[in-house]
Design brief:
The chain has one domain. Helix content is 36%, strand content 21%. Helix 7 packs across helix 8.
Length: 272
């Protein structure tokens, strides 16, 4: 099915053509996705996870590994910084980005997350504060400025997000959704400024282009708190970056939230 404009760049780190990855055809017939080199560079983590007997146990192991690996454990940070003269150094954390996303997906943390999707999956964002209608325009430049902010681009933040995605994929396969290629998720909206309608299909079904990273909920009533129009989508598990029960403690617990890689989706639009 033709699209209104290019949906991304040709390069990514998952080994599939970006136009295919962003298409409704991929969503109908998804393939497993892996970020090149991530698992190979962290064999100790996957060995730890293989011994977990539950998702809770696996989440605690991953959380502890990330805190130690990237020095974001409060006790480690205080101990190191106490021995150094001068001001304390801010260390970026994937948990801080999730917290910022929960407050405002169009804030600086949201720009970094969208930039990570752009880098790893090749999909450009279509919205950040305003609709991004062309590369190089003022809206695009503001997005670039925020996604490259030095405040968040330290402590190997993209590598942290790579590991979060790979752990999410492992957890879905091992515990949360074994043998499932899709989950039915819901998103509430009051307008389609952020989601471009590409075609109206049968009945209430429409083809939309979602932003390159979008929030969904597993609960329709929760989604209704964010808008009167509910988009119901069959989301490939391969496109889920984060889900509500992935970690024992995280900032998105309250809304049953899923972070989903965007592109073209066939969705059912209905009033709440």
């Amino acid at each position: 099915m033709p699209t209104s404009r290019a949906i991304g760049q040709s390069t990514n780190l998952v080994g599939l053509p970006t136009p295919l990855l962003g298409s409704a055809e991929f969503n109908a017939h998804p393939l497993p996705l892996h970020i090149s080199g991530c698992r190979e560079m962290n064999p100790n983590l996957w060995e730890m996870l293989s011994q977990a007997e539950s998702l809770t146990e696996a989440g605690e192991a991953f959380h502890a590994y990330m805190l130690a690996m990237f020095g974001i454990d409060p006790e480690q940070r205080e101990r190191r910084e106490a021995s150094r003269p001068g001001p304390r150094r801010y260390r970026s954390s994937f948990l801080r980005l999730l917290k910022g996303w929960g407050y405002d997906s169009n804030g600086p943390e949201g720009a970094v997350l969208k930039g990570w999707v752009e880098s790893r999956f090749g999909l450009f964002p279509t919205y950040h504060k305003e609709a991004i209608t062309r590369l190089g325009g003022p809206v695009w430049l503001r997005y670039i400025e925020e996604k490259m902010s030095s405040r968040f681009h330290n402590n190997a933040i993209h590598t942290q997000l790579d590991m979060m995605y790979e752990f999410c994929q492992w957890a879905l396969t091992a515990f949360a959704a074994p043998d499932q290629r899709h989950l039915t998720l819901y998103r509430g909206t009051n307008s389609f400024d952020e989601h471009q309608i590409l075609a109206r299909l049968d009945g209430r079904e429409v083809l939309v282009r979602l932003n390159n990273l979008a929030s969904f909920s597993e609960d329709r009533d929760t989604a209704g708190c964010f808008g009167d129009v509910i988009l119901t989508a069959r989301v490939p598990t391969a496109k889920i970056v984060f889900f509500n029960t992935l970690l024992p403690v995280h900032p998105l617990k309250g809304e049953g939230e899923y972070l989903v890689i965007g592109g073209e989706y066939r969705v059912t639009a209905s009033y709440y």
